[in-house]
């Protein structure tokens, strides 16, 4: 992995950046022409639920940012109160056989692309960030969060099991002791709690301030060789990346086996009903 | 492991719990009919030395608690000043060939059962907890300790080497840097020191208060799906559990090789003599 | 590994120690006859650059200390402002094919000897300690640092990639989250910052005070069985030691491949020019 990446990496351009803005259906990429930093915005109303399409767009946008000589990637949401509500349950409830396989594969791909990204990554968490939303945030290298929101891997409260690579992202941020307890409890942390435990690095009053603080973090790499940085990061994260890469098929089968348990389907159905009732009120 | 466990797991009953009390020779299991939490009490005078019989009883009691739909397990001691003094040296000094094999195997079994337990576990540490006592406490998910006692893996002070899975339990609680130093020093921590470094989670003035705080920790899982919780915990701990499971035979041989070194036998003999003298004074 | 080491280990002598002082070309070993602690001083002007000869001397001195029944090893520098400036770039710039292989192999050997040393180790960091200097310091079990110096793995700033085993030493000291960020940023920490984050354990006003504090740390093992201690430490560090031992050849090839990239050679050339200009001013 290392070698092929090394050969394909291109050093940062030092000249002025072109302003680029690309819109796929569900994500937007905007590159700041002064800083050279790309902002990747998730835009799938109502809650940035991670379905097959959003996951594929995410991966494509990450690849685009890797290719366009950006100095860094900031992940954020167009929704003013939700960063991402996590995996779209509609992809898992009474799923189509082929589509659910494509869905999980797209999730694996998006994680491998983000967690292993060669450019510096930061999340401007401008809304609630449960489950898969927390996965995306903890796969970045830095997190800035707005007040009065919550973040966490709350899968056990939903009756599902976060796979090992969700845990890997979590463990790259939190001490093992704290990570295990939070995972088992399915605990959601407020912004203040997340800051105190280290689940996020900074708080910010507004989205603009959050984006600015993310840009400052990315700025700490200004005098760092981008190839050496990318290889160092990927080597540091190699064990987790290689574990999923080598166990992709088993990981997919494990997910399919679990999701097809009658008790799990029943639980998802009850949860969906509760969401519908909430929506009516 | 995951799949077979999944299929055999039974969700918590939501109705009232039967009050059950089982006494084997050296342990007691008592289930609180209001909370559904089982208290597992070690009761082998004078110091809860972990010999073959206590270890077998411990494992059997853990299995019973797993099977009786308890909401959680609290491990404690009937002794007012000693949680457990650790491995019974009489099992290792001039040992019978067959018995010492059974002893170590029972220790492996007890650890696999407790560290990998599907129910929430907490230790009410109501007395000193050196070596094997600390192993049991750190194999639980939460620790509450009474004041003026000590806890730690002090094997190096006794001239023996804590096996890798003792280290795994320790590392699931302490940061790596702190764990290594304490292990090499064979350091015993006072209650205050243990609290400060994170080796225990809370202090309590009395055993009743300790049991209550353990029950409160177990209560944090009230709204968590018990199957998802169990699978999450076991996945989080899988690497350590699988390591011992796959290396049981080598681990046993390593222990036997070590324990049969003349220098080690001599050291144990001297230590036993010093204990006898203490007992006389 | 464990067994052969066990059989070859010799317990600490309890009688008075002989005063020994051995000088190889680039290191000095001095054993305090009261404490039995060996001080290993790097002495390669002007900056203790780690070249083939210094690395071979380091390894030989560590072996000597292991063999002479010392109670511990304190690593320090004869230079009043530089602990070690890290790998000697002259060994990597336009290198001789055979010598550069011997150089990297000597670095592997020195790390395996120091990180896996059976005696307690401490670093009295009496000057700047970048890159390879930080590797040596973090391979010891304890660190005391003088004020107003800097320490860190700043390889990404030099355009190179610290190998996995550099990361292992770093991770044996820092939490994962902090280690990754610092590695990616190539961050140098001041003494105060290093103390706060845990990269060093204590600060000291003078070299004498630093040596004294290192000796006090080594003194914490006075009542610990030295064989049990050595086996415990080596077992705790076994995964990292075994990883390099089993991948030595690939690690060497990876280094040679990297160092021979035209872009890397060009970067080293520019860096050397800048050093020459600095030296003139």
Automatic annotation (TrEMBL), chains A, B, C:
GO terms for biological process: fatty acid beta-oxidation. It is found in: Mitochondrion matrix. GO terms for molecular function: delta(3)-delta(2)-enoyl-CoA isomerase activity. It catalyses: (2E)-tetradecenoyl-CoA = (3Z)-tetradecenoyl-CoA; (3Z)-decenoyl-CoA = (2E)-decenoyl-CoA; (3Z)-dodecenoyl-CoA = (2E)-dodecenoyl-CoA; (3Z)-octenoyl-CoA = (2E)-octenoyl-CoA. This is Enoyl-CoA delta isomerase 1, mitochondrial. Key enzyme of fatty acid beta-oxidation. Able to isomerize both 3-cis (3Z) and 3-trans (3E) double bonds into the 2-trans (2E) form in a range of enoyl-CoA species, with a preference for (3Z)-enoyl-CoAs over (3E)-enoyl-CoAs. The catalytic efficiency of this enzyme is not affected by the fatty acyl chain length. InterPro entries: ClpP/crotonase-like_dom_sf, Enoyl-CoA_hydra/iso. Keywords: Acetylation, Fatty acid metabolism, Isomerase, Lipid metabolism, Mitochondrion, Transit peptide. Homotrimer. Pathway: Lipid metabolism; fatty acid beta-oxidation. Pfam families: ECH_1. GO terms for cellular component: mitochondrial matrix. It comes from Drosophila mojavensis (Fruit fly). Gene3D superfamilies: 2-enoyl-CoA Hydratase, Chain A, domain 1 (3.90.226.10), 6.10.250.170.
């Amino acid at each position: 992995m290392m070698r092929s990446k090394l050969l394909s990496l291109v050093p940062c351009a030092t000249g002025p950046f072109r302003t680029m803005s690309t819109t796929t259906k569900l994500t937007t990429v905007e590159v700041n022409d002064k800083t050279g930093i790309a902002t990747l915005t998730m835009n799938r109303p109502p809650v940035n639920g991670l379905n097959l399409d959003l996951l594929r767009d995410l991966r494509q946008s990450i690849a685009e940012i890797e290719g366009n000589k950006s100095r860094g990637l900031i992940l954020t949401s167009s929704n003013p109160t939700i960063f991402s509500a996590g995996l779209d349950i509609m992809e898992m409830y009474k799923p189509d056989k082929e589509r659910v396989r494509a869905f999980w594969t797209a999730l694996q791909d998006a994680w491998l692309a983000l967690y292993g990204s060669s450019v510096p990554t930061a999340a401007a968490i401008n809304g609630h960030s449960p489950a898969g939303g927390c996965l995306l945030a903890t796969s970045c290298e830095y997190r800035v969060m707005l007040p009065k929101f919550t973040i966490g891997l709350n899968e056990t409260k939903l009756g599902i099991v976060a796979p090992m690579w969700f845990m890997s992202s979590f463990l790259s941020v939190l001490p093992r002791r704290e990570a295990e307890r939070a995972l088992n409890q399915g605990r959601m942390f407020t912004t203040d709690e997340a800051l105190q435990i280290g689940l996020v690095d900074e708080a910010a009053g507004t989205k603009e301030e959050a984006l600015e603080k993310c840009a400052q973090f990315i700025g700490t790499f200004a005098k760092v060789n981008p190839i050496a940085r990318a290889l160092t990061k990927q080597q540091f994260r190699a064990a987790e990346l290689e574990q999923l890469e080598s166990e992709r098929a088993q990981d997919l089968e494990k997910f399919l086996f679990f999701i097809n348990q009658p008790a799990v389907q029943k639980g998802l159905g009850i949860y969906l009903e509760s969401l519908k009732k909430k929506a009516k009120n």
